Amino acid sequence: MVMPTALVTGSSSGIGAAFAKRYAQLGHDLVLVARNAERLRNQATELRARWHVDVEVLPADLGTDDGCAAVETRAADVGRPIDVLVNNAGFTLGADLLHSDVDAEEQLLRVLVRAPMRLTKAALPGMLARDRGSIITVASVAAFVNHSSYGAAKAWAVRFSEALSLNLAGTGVGALALCPGLVRTEFHERGHVDVSRVPDWLWLDVDQVVTECLRDLRRGKAVSIPSLRYKGLTAAGRVLPRGVVARARDAGRTLKRRR
Ligand SMILES: NC(=O)c1ccc[n+]([C@@H]2O[C@H](COP(=O)([O-])OP(=O)(O)OC[C@H]3O[C@@H](n4cnc5c(N)ncnc54)[C@H](OP(=O)(O)O)[C@@H]3O)[C@@H](O)[C@H]2O)c1
Q1: pTM of this prediction?
Q2: Is residue 257 part of a domain?
Q3: How far from the centroid of its chain's Cα atoms is residue 204's Cα?
Q4: Is residue 120 part of a domain?
Q5: What percent of the chain has pLDDT over 90?
Q6: Is 259 inside any structural domain?
Q7: Which of the listed residues 19, 21, 35 should we mutate to test ligand 1's pocket, taking the one with most ligand atoms within 8 A of CB?
Q8: Closest-lying ligand 1 atom to the alpha carbon of residue 11
Q9: Residue positions annotated with a catalytic role
């Protein structure tokens, strides 16, 4: 029997690792993408042993033309169809727009915008031909409340998924932007974001985030915001004037950046 296959970018850590585990648990074969090949191989060994699924390892830097192209080729391979694409790989910059490096800003756009767009375009024709498939793009509540280039890139992911979902209406293919709040992963350490003063109630459980995402996907939603508390916070962020949200965020200063 041919099992469905999920391709997860940024699978080696955090939210991507939780997606990879969940899809393995659901009986999907996997294609794992991240830069660190050894980490991917170890992850693949564990997933094969635990869930008895086929796991391919595809080390690639999605910030480069060649790395992204290699994953596009795999996503478009009609002989080995991808049923679920999880555009998850991502990072944030350790500096605001006044202090960031222009090349780092470009890398951010390459990984958070260019790669999800290109991988989606690569996977879609096969999904439409089979009239079956799902495209999950991991955005963030930052899309609604954070006025940084990271927030702008995540806002793109939300709009992109909403537009795609509308275009796909009436087909068997679904598209959804997942907008998590704070999740304990390597993300903050890597981005030099100090989260030491974030209260416990703001942290989400990574497996619960994946559960809510897949439930919203089944329900045909285009945007998934896990947990009532973040649904409320983002609703406020959407209706309040941008300046008020920015001032409230800055006054809170819960997420101070290390310099
Ligand atoms: N954690 C949060 O609070 C939070 C909240 C909202 C949204 N998000 C979003 O969730 C997604 C996953 O983040 P996370 O929290 O799980 O972070 P994480 O633990 O740092 O994991 C990031 C993953 O992306 C991979 N990656 C990074 N740059 C890459 C590149 N250029 N090419 C290929 N793979 C790359 C990393 O592996 P390698 O380093 O080996 O490449 C790793 O597997 C991101 O899109 C992030 O913006 C996170």
Answers
A1: 0.94
A2: no
A3: 15
A4: yes
A5: 87
A6: no
A7: 35
A8: 43
A9: 150
Closest atom of ligand 1 to CA, residue 154: 47
pLDDT in tens, 149-185: 999 999 999 999 999 999 999 999 999 999 999 999 9
Structure tokens at 29: 């074969």
* Residue 103 domain boundaries: 5-252
The CATH number that applies at residue 82 is 3.40.50.720
Q: Name residues of the chain where pLDDT drops below 70.
A: 240-259
Dist CA 244 CA 246 (whole Å): 5
Residues with CB under 6 A from ligand 1: 9-16, 34-36, 39, 61-63, 88-91, 111, 138, 140, 180, 182-183, 185-187, 190
Q: Kindly state whether residue 13 falls inside one of the protein's structural domains.
A: yes
C-alpha–C-alpha distance, residues 88 and 180, integer Å: 12
| pLDDT 10s digits, 53-77 | 999 999 999 999 999 999 999 999 9
- The closest alpha carbon to 12, from 61, 80, 50, 67, belongs to 61
What sign results for the dihedral spanned by CA atoms 147, 150, 219, 170? positive
- Closest C-alpha to ligand 1, atom 43: 10
What's the domain count of the chain? Answer: 1
Supply 188's token pair: 């903050």
Q: What is the pLDDT of residue 13?
A: 98
